[in-house]
């Protein structure tokens, strides 16, 4: 388990900026958890006592409106972090985090995060930069919802989550596509139609996921060829 925690610290965009001594301190106050799909990691309004690193699986961040409607703010993939901003500000949780699949998460105590920020300026700067990047990503997501068509939003999502291997790019979705549709602001039938239209851009459904044979064609469809993956929340 210690090896796994050390690996998480080295690959995390925030923890990797901490000194070796700081990382060791943070890991002493970290807890590795395996949670089942549907498990609530934290609830909107609850005390923020930890920041999280997603080791495996997918996490959805949501907010529930007074009428009962649920908005999916973002989906987190393995290697990403969530819940840090509320923790360092010591504010109640601004949203709810729920396991969209079975997950492995590493939680780091808010107290140790704040102490390390004060003692390690590089780590403190990394935390601030990470928070700004997440805010920028939210603005970019809002922009995409306002100006991109459904097929363009789907193309953004696929490009961001595509993993290269064996000469191809594959997006593996371990959950039902209606979750992606909800996140992208589409109806499930609209998502299916958009996915069908993307066939002419080199996208097809295969047994192990969604295959992209020509990422450049999707970038051209979106109309932007640089940093496409940052059009989505990271």
UniProtKB/TrEMBL annotation:
Domain HTH crp-type: 148-216
Domain Cyclic nucleotide-binding: 14-134
Keyword Lipoprotein: no
Key words, A-Z: DNA-binding, Transcription, Transcription regulation
A Pfam short name: cNMP_binding
GO molecular function, one term: DNA-binding transcription factor activity
Species annotation: Aquicoccus porphyridii
Top-rank taxon: Bacteria
Keyword Transcription regulation: yes
GO CC terms of this entry: cytosol
Protein name: Cyclic nucleotide-binding domain-containing protein
């Amino acid at each position: 388990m210690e090896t796994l925690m050390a690996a998480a610290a080295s690959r995390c965009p925030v923890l990797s900026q901490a000194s070796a001594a700081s990382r060791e301190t943070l890991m002493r106050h970290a807890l590795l958890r395996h949670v089942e799909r549907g498990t609530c990691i934290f609830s909107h309004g609850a005390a923020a006592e930890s920041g999280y690193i997603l080791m495996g699986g997918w996490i959805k961040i949501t907010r529930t409106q007074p009428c009962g409607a649920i908005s999916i703010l973002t989906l987190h993939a393995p290697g990403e972090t969530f819940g840090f901003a509320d923790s360092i500000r010591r504010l109640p949780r601004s949203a709810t985090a729920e396991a969209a699949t079975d997950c492995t998460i590493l939680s780091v105590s808010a107290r140790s995060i704040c102490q390390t920020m004060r003692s390690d300026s590089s780590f403190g700067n990394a935390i601030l930069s990470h928070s700004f990047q997440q805010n920028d990503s939210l603005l970019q997501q809002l922009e995409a919802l306002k100006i991109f068509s459904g097929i363009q939003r789907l193309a953004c999502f696929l490009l961001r989550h595509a993993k290269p291997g064996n000469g191809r790019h594959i997006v593996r979705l371990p959950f039902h596509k209606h979750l992606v549709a909800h996140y992208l602001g589409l109806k499930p039938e609209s998502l299916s139609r958009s996915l069908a239209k993307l066939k002419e851009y080199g996208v097809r459904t295969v047994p192990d996921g969604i295959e992209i044979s020509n990422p450049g064609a999707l970038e051209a469809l979106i109309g932007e060829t640089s940093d496409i993956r940052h059009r989505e929340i990271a």
